[in-house]
């Protein structure tokens, strides 16, 4: 059976690693045309080659920094040169930086989180919406987090940023009602990607400890979900989806196997 996503144009931000890279490969398997962006262009180009190998009919990459309006506009211009319509926009670029309590946190970390997870989603959506509003059945899928739904110590800015993403998703769905554009949020719990390595600024031991003794989600688990959300029939919108490891019943309730 031919996939509903075959030959559809799929734009993915933050495609150089983790969920974004796995999504590029997974949409490739469906025969999609994937356009990828992130700051590490070399990594994005490798992912594009993997997507082609997986079955993508087009896969290309362009440098993208969602924290800068001008960079987003340049990226959108590059997209427009390739297609006059976007079928799926995955606003995935983002992450957490630091786990300090508010009393000790740094401005640069707060700014990274707000610029990427909040303003980045707004900028990318504004820039690419003209290619979507006349394309009923197209989908905007934002990557949120359980952090946007439940606060935790050391997570004030990240939780605020992802709560912001959730409300942007809800407001956009209201604004776009009647256009046929679907707006969804997929909100994962613990997933082992480069997320914790970035949060702990390259400290691999500390990053590994986050997942110690439990079975986290993989990037492929999320990619599979994104393909499912995007491939529902045009009249079906998956508004909000929370996806967590079985070992993580709640933000603070994680089952860990001890070795002894
Ligand atoms: N892993 C988890 O446990 C988890 C759980 C819930 C939600 N999330 C969310 O899922 C999304 C993807 O994270 P991940 O787990 O796949 O982590 P990841 O492997 O660190 O991937 C993050 C991606 O975002 C990109 N990015 C960061 N800043 C950017 C910027 N200014 N402009 C463009 N791209 C940027 C990175 O690329 P460059 O560095 O090359 O720019 C990278 O491709 C994030 O929004 C994260 O908050 C993750």
Question: Can you walk through the features of this model?
Answer:
The protein is α/β, with parallel strands linked by helices. The termini are far apart. The chain is 40% helix and 16% strand. Strand 1, helix 1 (18-29) and strand 2 (33-38) form a beta-alpha-beta unit. The mean pLDDT is 98. The protein contains eight helices and nine strands. The strands form two sheets. A seven-stranded parallel beta sheet has the order 3-2-1-4-5-6-7, sandwiched between helices. Bound molecules: NADP nicotinamide-adenine-dinucleotide phosphate (NAP). Residues 13-20, 38-40, 43, 64-67, 92-95, 116-117, 143, 145, 188, 190-191, 193-195, 198, 219 line the site of NADP nicotinamide-adenine-dinucleotide phosphate.
> Low-confidence parts, pLDDT < 50 over ≥5 residues?
none
Q: SS-based structural class? A: alpha/beta
Task: Compute the CA-based radius of gyration.
Answer: 18 Å
Distance between the termini: 49 Å
Bound molecules: NADP nicotinamide-adenine-dinucleotide phosphate
Query: Looking at the structure, what is the overall shape?
Result: globular
Find the count of extended strands (DSSP E, 2+ residues).
9
Largest beta-sheet characterization? 7 strands, parallel
The residue fraction in helices comes out at 40-55%
Number of helices: 8
Average pLDDT over all residues: 98
Order of helices and strands: EHEHEHEHEHEHHHEEE
Output the strand order for the largest sheet: 3-2-1-4-5-6-7
Strand content: 15-25%
